[in-house]
UniProtKB/TrEMBL annotation:
<dbReference type="InterPro" id="IPR032472">
    <property type="entry name" value="ArgoL2"/>
</dbReference>
<dbReference type="Pfam" id="PF16488">
    <property type="entry name" value="ArgoL2"/>
</dbReference>
<dbReference type="InterPro" id="IPR036397">
    <property type="entry name" value="RNaseH_sf"/>
</dbReference>
<dbReference type="GO" id="GO:0003723">
    <property type="term" value="F:RNA binding"/>
</dbReference>
<dbReference type="Pfam" id="PF16487">
    <property type="entry name" value="ArgoMid"/>
</dbReference>
<dbReference type="InterPro" id="IPR014811">
    <property type="entry name" value="ArgoL1"/>
</dbReference>
<feature type="domain" description="PAZ">
    <location>
        <begin position="72"/>
        <end position="181"/>
    </location>
</feature>
<dbReference type="InterPro" id="IPR045246">
    <property type="entry name" value="Piwi_ago-like"/>
</dbReference>
<dbReference type="InterPro" id="IPR003100">
    <property type="entry name" value="PAZ_dom"/>
</dbReference>
<dbReference type="InterPro" id="IPR032473">
    <property type="entry name" value="Argonaute_Mid_dom"/>
</dbReference>
<dbReference type="Pfam" id="PF02170">
    <property type="entry name" value="PAZ"/>
</dbReference>
<dbReference type="Pfam" id="PF08699">
    <property type="entry name" value="ArgoL1"/>
</dbReference>
<dbReference type="Pfam" id="PF02171">
    <property type="entry name" value="Piwi"/>
</dbReference>
<feature type="domain" description="Piwi">
    <location>
        <begin position="361"/>
        <end position="649"/>
    </location>
</feature>
<dbReference type="InterPro" id="IPR012337">
    <property type="entry name" value="RNaseH-like_sf"/>
</dbReference>
<dbReference type="InterPro" id="IPR036085">
    <property type="entry name" value="PAZ_dom_sf"/>
</dbReference>
<protein>
    <submittedName>
        <fullName>Piwi-domain-containing protein</fullName>
    </submittedName>
</protein>
Length: 649
């Protein structure tokens, strides 16, 4: 590890002296593209030395990040607020601007001789007329507005000030703060519109990505011209490595035997059509549900027409719906998260009183993709009132597409306890011949503050790996190790035994979100906790366990050489497996691209098998993992990682 760190330091040395660098990525200001709101996107190149089976490789890929637009702060703020700067900020505007500029570095325009970077603490609650300071020569008390007029001959256009970090809490007018180039903007703070613009710029087709990578290697990273590398006897071949790969066959997908289009379908390019196919098993009969539409009353008829089409399509898919004309309430969208929470609770109570029964489903029609409203809905329905919810977008409601309704039906049937599709038993004999439980685990960390991290463990309850039960707990913030892994797995094992009258004879864990530096932690803590949980169920219960790490945050990409090996987007076809040459020299790992990307270049999943008491061969585990990716119940496409490790809302 120390040796690889040294090699990485070498390849980053020269680029870091010429360009902006964060972590293992080098960014070029000349590639900037505006995302609006005072934020711009820069392209760069990720480069990292990785050990292969017979040599070392430099992993290079295009990468992107977002920065604050450089320049005068008084020009940045109105772009962020999407309005001109008022004479006095409202409390909401003040808080938003403070959140935007906290920690931002700038140089003072009125003191060009000062080369020091000053850091902003917050937007000052008082303006340039409110604060008095001493004139240096006379000691006269004047307000800051007058001070800048007399001392610097500057008449301020804006009276708002920023407060600096430090003991003195100095104040500087916003129009005299020149924001320094190359300061990263928090990705979590991007709006949905900015995210959309970012995707348009970053979703490069494979051949375009290849061109950008080669461009970066030759013009920016310049390994062959790097005298530091040559002085250490290190040479880098700037041509992309050619590696062997295999393509696994997709499994056959099963639907209800009475389906008009037949009971089975073979996917093409990682997907298939749901038309004229019925779900394997309908969920509970839908009798008690309500539609809450955050729209104007005048759009009621469009919502009613959509609900009618949704009911018809869902029935054609095999769902059992007793109440075909649910109550539709139009509610004016307004307020913060707490306001929405109160509104949802009120709608729930009204519907419950009207139906004289507990609700099975709340369907929400949303006017836009406001993330705060969506989160408020999910938080309220999932954690406060305990009712499954389904959200649909107003623009989709207007179109009332049968395909969209079928996709919504997929999710609703699942939430009502149904099974949408399954795999043919002959496709996954490892699961169907004897009781096997798939586990999945991950930890979600908060984006700011000291909020606790949320850990989740799921376990399959059927012999298809399609139905899962979940357990969630909070734990110390920013901690990746799942403290109560044993307790949650024990609960899942009890649930499995309750449903199947038997304990699983084998266990396969797909663990997401673990970096290579944390592999030892997983083996010494989480694996042992799973074994302890089995012993607590029964002292003699000791099923063989396979523990697999699922990696997504890496920069390895594959580009097919022959046209016959490409899909319609130019990517490698779904099912491509690489387990030689660039994989670890002694660990059991492989890359699997199990999906077809709708946009951009496909990213394969990187699987590390840390522990394997089941003694799976490479072929068996790769095939099983690949086929499981076709059994993600919320879609008619294969997914990029094993469903046990997938996140969804």
């Amino acid at each position: 590890i120390v040796g690889i760190r040294g090699l990485n330091a070498l390849i980053h040395h020269i680029p870091s002296m010429k360009y902006t660098q964060f972590g293992e990525s080098t960014y070029l200001p000349s590639t900037r593209k505006s995302l609006g709101g005072g934020v711009e996107l820069w392209m760069g190149w990720f480069e990292s030395v990785r050990p292969g089976q017979d040599s070392y490789f430099v992993n290079v890929n295009t990468t992107y990040t977002v920065f604050y637009e450089p320049g005068i702060l008084s020009n940045l703020i109105p772009k962020y607020l999407n309005s001109s700067i008022p004479e006095r900020f409202s409390q909401n505007q003040h808080d938003r601007v403070t959140e935007l500029i906290r920690g931002l570095q700038f140089r003072p325009v009125h003191r060009p001789q000062v080369n020091t970077r000053l850091k902003i603490k917050r937007l000052c609650p008082n303006n340039a007329y409110d604060i008095k300071i001493d004139m240096p020569d006379s000691g006269e008390k004047v307000d800051i507005y007058t001070y800048f007029q007399r001392r610097y001959n500057i008449t301020l256009r804006h009276v708002h000030l920023v407060e600096l970090e430090g003991r003195r809490n100095d104040k500087v007018p916003i129009e005299l703060c020149n924001v320094i180039e190359g300061q990263r903007f928090p990705v979590a703070k991007l709006t949905s519109a900015q995210r959309g613009a970012m995707i348009k710029h970053t979703a490069l087709r494979p051949q375009e990505n290849v061109h950008r990578i080669n461009e970066g290697v030759q013009d920016v990273l310049q390994f062959e011209k790097d005298f530091k590398l040559s002085s250490f006897g290190m040479e880098v071949d700037e041509q992309m490595a050619i590696i062997p790969a295999r393509v696994l066959k997709p499994p056959q997908i099963s639907y209800h035997s009475t389906s008009k289009a037949g009971g089975t379908v073979r996917p093409k390019e990682g997907g298939w059509n749901l038309r004229d196919r019925k779900f394997v098993r309908s969920g509970n009969t839908l009798r008690y549900w309500v539609v809450v539409a955050f729209i104007d009353q005048r759009k009621f008829n469009q919502a009613k027409q959509f609900v009618k089409e949704l009911v018809n399509t869902s029935r054609q898919q095999g769902m059992d719906i007793a109440e075909t004309n649910p109550r539709i309430n139009c509610v004016k969208p307004h307020g913060d998260a707490q306001t929405y929470q109160r509104m949802i609770e009120a709608e729930y109570n009204n519907a419950r009183n009207h139906l004289l029964n507990d609700l099975q489903l709340m369907l929400f029609v949303l006017p836009d993709d406001d993330e705060k409203r969506y989160r408020a809905i999910k938080y309220t329905t999932d954690t406060i009132i305990g009712v499954p919810s389904q959200c649909v977008q107003l623009d989709k409601v207007y179109k009332t597409s049968k395909q969209y309704c079928a996709n919504v039906a997929l999710k609703i049937n699942l939430k009502l306890g149904g099974t949408n599709q399954s795999l043919e038993e002959t496709e996954i004999p490892q699961l169907t011949k004897e009781p096997v439980m798939l586990l999945g685990a991950d930890v979600t960390h908060p984006t700011g503050g000291h909020m606790p991290s949320i850990c989740a463990v799921v376990g399959s309850l059927d012999r298809q790996g399609g139905r899962f039960i979940s357990k969630l707990e909070s734990q110390r913030t920013r901690q990746e190790k799942i403290e109560n892994m044993g307790g949650m797995v024990k609960e899942i094992l009890i649930d499995y035994r309750s449903k199947n009258n038997i304990l699983p004879l084998r266990i396969i864990m797909y663990r997401d979100g673990v970096s290579e530096s944390q592999f030892e932690m997983v083996l010494t803590h989480e694996l042992e906790k799973i074994k302890d949980a089995c012993k607590e169920i029964d002292e003699t219960y000791n099923p063989p366990i396979t523990f697999v790490i699922v990696g997504k945050r890496h920069h390895t990409r594959f580009y097919p050489q022959q046209k016959n090996d490409t899909d319609s987007k130019g990517n490698c076809v779904a099912g491509t497996v690489v387990d030689r040459k660039i994989t670890h020299p002694y660990l059991f790992d492989f890359f699997l691209q199990s999906h077809t990307s709708l946009h951009g270049t496909s990213r394969p999943a990187h699987y590390h098998v840390l522990f394997d008491e089941n003694k799976f061969t490479s072929d068996i585990l790769q095939n099983l993992t690949h086929k499981l990716c076709y059994n993600y119940q919320r879609a008619t496409r294969s997914v990029s990682i094993a469903p046990a490790a997938c996140k969804y809302q």
